[in-house]
Design a protein that fits this description.
Layout lengths: L1 H19 L12 E2 L9 E3 L1 H9 L3 H9 L8 E7 L3 E6 L1 H14 L13 E5 L11 H19 L3 E8 L4 H17 L14 H14 L10 H26 L6 E4 H6 L2 H11 L3 E4 L2 E4 L10 E4 L7 H15 L4 E7 L5 H11 L7 E6 L2 E5 L2 E3 L11 H8 L1 H10 L6 E4 H5 L6 H18 L16 H10 L2 H11 L4 H19 L12 H25 L8
Parallel strand pairs: 5-6, 5-11, 6-7, 11-12, 13-15
Antiparallel strand pairs: 1-2, 2-4, 3-4, 8-9, 9-10, 13-14
Amino acid sequence: MIRDQLRQAVAAAAERAVASGALPSVPLPEVAIETPADPRNGDYATSLALKLRKATSLDPLAIATAIAERIELPPETARVEVARPGFINFTLCAAWLQRQPAEILRQGERYGCVDLGAGRRAQVEFISANPTGPLHIGAGRNAALGDALASVLAHAGYRVEREYYINDAGTQTERLSASVYARYRQKLGQAVEFPADGYPGEYISELAERMVERFGDSLLPGKTDEQAALETIGQASEQVILEWIRQDVAKLHVSFDTWFSERSLYQSGLVERVLRMLRERGLIYEKEGATWFAATKLGFEKDEVVIRSSGRSTYFLSDIAYHYDKLAVRKFDWSIDVWGADHQGQVPRVKAALQALDIDPSRFSVVLYQLVSVMRGGQQVRMGKRAGTYITLSEVIDEVGADAVRFFLVATSANAMMKFDLDLARKQSSENPVHYVKYAHARTAGVLRNAAGIDYRDADTRLLTTEPELTLLRKMVRLPEIVEDAAKMLAPHPLPYYAQDIAAALHIFYDTCRVLPSEREPIDPELTRARLQLIAACKVVLANTLHLIGVSAPESM
């Protein structure tokens, strides 16, 4: 990429400036190449001279000049300029930009791909909500982030697998069983109290109805042991809820390579195996009837319980076994989890346990995301119809569509709380960013349909010389950089903004530069062919960007 070439060129020029005596011999910081906010300052810039001011005691403008004079520009770059207070700015060569539509069309769906991952195996585990109720809109944010991130990593050269971790062991599933069993008995005429800590919501009654249809009264006390009845109802309810979850993620156009059961970690003996390995390393001990992980031996403030005095394992123990399975058993090079921000404290604990098991903790990363509030009419919507206490993902998809849900949920940085505006997401106008971008793609498709029969493949794109044309080209060539940055930061949120940027530049170009001739406005046929190639390439860039977000790229609207 050009950005990498400029980085290398600047670093080499700085070294030459030091070698010639123009700059004092000081450690050179890493060269950062950025995109100026004001396009009048060029296409790329570096603030290296400002970073060297303190170490050299020189005027940054003099430092920038010394470096700029020694830069060997890559052929894609037309010129280098020094600007106050010490920036070095670069402008791309128009001739190179004019050749890019053909290159974009040649790469097609692969345009924007980079080889950051070099074929390494990466697993993205996301959503992983307990199968105790319908997915809520917060899980939708997890889904949109995780799926977009997986797409970005695949575009960045990783071999990616998507995984849903089913939390089907523990107290949450027992609460579900007790809740459904109480409603089941009530529906069969028995006067029983609903558990004080039971799950509210209409869906519990739905599940109870299904249990009545499936089992009749065979699970009532006196006909079946109560514990056996709870286990039967619990497992059957989990399967129904899992099917709801599968339907919800399908509505959001998300698919998983693997659905991994927490329960299987115990059934396979892996939890016991991991516990034994930690014990052999002197990191497990007994106290007060419980079993503890000696995290303080690894530099942490406090030890952690892995088996309670009741004999029940904690989530932390199964988390250790699960990540050991990912990285040591299935041998993924990199495991990325998408978790709610309330789980932040678990990250260092899991990393410590992995290190204790001789697994490099840098192979495990976590993306933390903040809560989502749903707004309608400027007011927060607090409860949904089905769950009773929260807005379900399915309700939001039904109201505004999967594309709007994914676009909006990805567009806000994961570490920021977000407000999902239902009114804005429903709008079919340029105020709605997802509509605005999808319309831009549909516009490119419409122009190409109207130009059917005109061959633009070998067009003379040197004719693309106006500012709207070159501005659109400058934005289009940035997709590989956007992908690389998103993969490095594990943050797909720049993609929706980039899509809006492309759409805005396309609309300006289209409104300013006539593409197809009319009786009132004839146009040079060769210029038409050049502009059609530009539009076709822009269509590829828009489609690839939308697909990375998980949003459809319509041919018409």
